[in-house]
């Protein structure tokens, strides 16, 4: 007989939270059947109502707390916790760091890998750290509002304090929104695919304080853009460049392909590890500059460069890692998919007077193959891939080149563990404890540095 779930929708009862998922949801179990519960922490006894029942798991919500976890902290507005901007906001920061370390440990254990994980390096002030914001604009009761979409939904919630963004960016978003309102710029309407302004993106240099405003519009036409540009500059004297980006697609992707510079050079500059970097709208740039310096320092120290090495920096972005390593290596090769970022990287080499770095545009997996054919034999390979990790072809080419050391910077521990297994199958070993560096406080994201050696 088919086993039915042991709970039904709208059922209410008391239970205890026994775990926290990697997405930050509390877990309770009824006869082994898991219920996922927002805003609930391990050890808490809660009264819940079942909201959704599917075959193998369900969702419930807390009606009342019978006791509270010692790790629970006061949240600043519960909308944040529920929605995904700051899903760990109700968990004390030291416990967040432990949670992240434990995530990595559990994944390793599941893969039967006996590898140590260090304590996560955290922030002194784990709020208002993001140097970039991309905020949707919508119309509510005739007014332009900025905010965010609830996790897994199209429900728009208007807010002005984003908690984890640079506060100057929060202020800038409101100021730009008000200028757009003043000039009667219509907000984008997703359903009808009408209206003009879709998103406001702001980037601010942590050291330089230079600020970039990007207006993401549905159509190329932005009525009164000259006046709007002037009004933004007046409201925000620190803005050094304003760009209009057109995205006419029906998509969740924020930026379209086309940029039109309305004011300034079309990019900002910022410093990292004492070097200067140009950052264009489409280029990736680490969003937590304070932690990035710690992350890179840990990676460089572990790379152990002496000045004689050939290094490949795969997924090189605007060249931050390549250029920071350049003076400690003989020759560096970088590869990056986004051509605008590669253009920035090449410019950044010039700005910083560095001439032992070559940047290529394309898929890292293809360039690894090219380099392997060209008999390039790197001493050190640095990889910093997106969440999906390394392609099998990438690992294959790496194994042909046999670098002595691989420095793996990862933003997704589950693909990291999979890839470590790929290297280990060829005899590589993890020679230092995996180091988590918390780039994303209040969220469930985890960044790590791993060293593999042969
Ligand atoms: N190392 C850089 C960038 C890391 S983010 C830094 O620390 O700033 C990952 C980068 O990989 C992004 O710039 C992204 O555009 C790029 N990317 C994504 N898929 C890629 C692929 N298949 N080949 C090369 N680069 C890729």
TrEMBL record:
CDD domains: AdoMet_MTases
Alphabetical list of Gene3D superfamilies matching this protein: 2.40.50.1070, Nucleic acid-binding proteins, Vaccinia Virus protein VP39
Entry-linked Pfam families: TRAM (PF01938), tRNA_U5-meth_tr (PF05958)
MF-aspect GO terms: methyltransferase activity
Enzyme Commission number(s): 2.1.1.190
Similarity comment text for this entry: Belongs to the class I-like SAM-binding methyltransferase superfamily. RNA M5U methyltransferase family.
Protein name: 23S rRNA (Uracil(1939)-C(5))-methyltransferase RlmD
Source species taxonomy: Bacteria, Bacillati, Bacillota, Bacilli, Lactobacillales
Gene it is expressed from: rlmD
């Amino acid at each position: 007989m088919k086993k039915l779930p042991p709970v039904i929708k709208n059922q209410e009862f008391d239970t205890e939270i026994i775990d926290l998922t990697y997405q930050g949801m509390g877990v309770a179990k009824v006869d082994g059947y898991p219920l996922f519960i927002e805003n609930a922490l391990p050890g808490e006894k809660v009264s819940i109502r079942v909201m959704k029942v599917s075959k193998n798991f369900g969702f419930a919500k807390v009606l009342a707390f019978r006791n509270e976890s010692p790790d629970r902290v006061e949240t600043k507005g519960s909308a944040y916790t529920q929605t995904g901007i700051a899903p760990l906001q109700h968990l004390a920061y030291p416990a967040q760091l432990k949670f992240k370390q434990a995530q990595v440990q559990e994944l390793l254990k599941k893969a039967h890998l006996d590898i140590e994980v260090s304590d996560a390096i955290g922030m002194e002030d784990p709020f208002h750290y993001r140097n970039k914001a991309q905020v949707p604009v919508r119309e509510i009761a005739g007014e332009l509002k900025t905010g965010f979409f609830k996790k897994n939904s199209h429900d728009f919630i208007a807010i002005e304090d984003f908690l984890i963004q640079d506060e100057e960016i929060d202020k800038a978003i409101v100021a730009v929104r008000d200028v757009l309102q003043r000039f009667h710029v219509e907000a984008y309407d997703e359903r009808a695919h009408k209206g003009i302004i879709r998103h406001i993106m702001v980037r601010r240099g942590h050291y330089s304080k230079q600020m970039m405003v990007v207006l993401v519009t549905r159509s190329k036409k932005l009525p009164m853009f000259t006046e709007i540009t002037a009004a933004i500059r007046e409201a925000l004297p620190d803005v050094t460049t304003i760009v209009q980006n057109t995205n006419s697609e029906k998509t969740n992707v924020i930026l379209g392909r086309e940029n039109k510079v309305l004011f300034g050079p079309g990019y900002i500059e910022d410093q990292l590890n004492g070097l200067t970097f140009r950052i264009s709208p489409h280029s990736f740039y680490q969003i937590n500059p304070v932690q990035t310096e710690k992350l890179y320092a840990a990676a460089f120290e572990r790379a152990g460069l002496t000045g004689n090495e050939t290094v490949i920096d795969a997924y090189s972005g605007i060249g931050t890692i390549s250029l920071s390593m350049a003076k400690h290596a003989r020759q560096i090769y970088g590869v990056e998919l986004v051509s605008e970022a590669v253009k920035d990287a090449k410019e950044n080499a010039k700005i910083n007077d560095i001439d032992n770095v070559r940047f290529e545009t394309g898929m890292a997996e293809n360039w690894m193959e090219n380099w392997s054919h060209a008999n390039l034999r790197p001493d050190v390979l640095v990889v910093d891939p997106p969440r999906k990790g390394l392609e099998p072809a990438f690992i294959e080419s790496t194994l042909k080149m046999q670098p002595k050391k691989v420095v793996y910077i990862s933003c997704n521990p589950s693909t990291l563990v999979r890839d470590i297994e790929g290297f280990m199958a060829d005899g590589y070993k993890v020679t230092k404890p995996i180091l988590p560096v918390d780039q994303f406080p209040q969220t469930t994201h985890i960044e790590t540095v791993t060293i593999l050696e042969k």
